[in-house]
Amino acid sequence: MKLRRLAISEEGFIFDPETGNSYTVNETGLFILEKLRQDLSPEEIARLLSQEYEVSPEEARRDLEDFLEVLTRYGLWKEPR
Fold first, then answer.
1. Most buried one in 1, 4, 30, 78, CB count within 10 A?
2. Angle 57-73/27-37 helices, nearest 10 degrees?
3. What DSSP string runs through 18-51?
4. Where are the domains of the chain?
């Protein structure tokens, strides 16, 4: 998984040593990246997001889907089949 090669700081700075690209994410993005690196499913991550940030399950799922779409666009994540 490409996410494992990324250097991620606690402040949300992300560096991809393979491409030299860098990115910045917020606290929620860091939470999601941590859970993806733990190999949790999107469904499980959405449930944890809902609990952690006290948002509805629908909002957590929508926010997660949006974030995963961005990761996919940058070639950092591919949905397991």
1. 30
2. 80
3. TT--EEE--HHHHHHHHHHHTT--HHHHHHHHHH
4. 2-73
Rounded to the nearest 5°, which phi and psi values hold at 23? -140, 165
- Sheet bearing 13-15, strands edge to edge: 7-8, 13-15, 22-24
Q: What is the pTM of this model?
A: 0.91
Backbone angles phi, psi at 15, to 5 degrees: -125, 130
Express each pLDDT in 11-59 by its tens digit.
999 999 999 999 999 999 999 999 999 999 999 999 999 999 999 999 9
Q: What mean pLDDT is predicted for residues 64-68?
A: 97
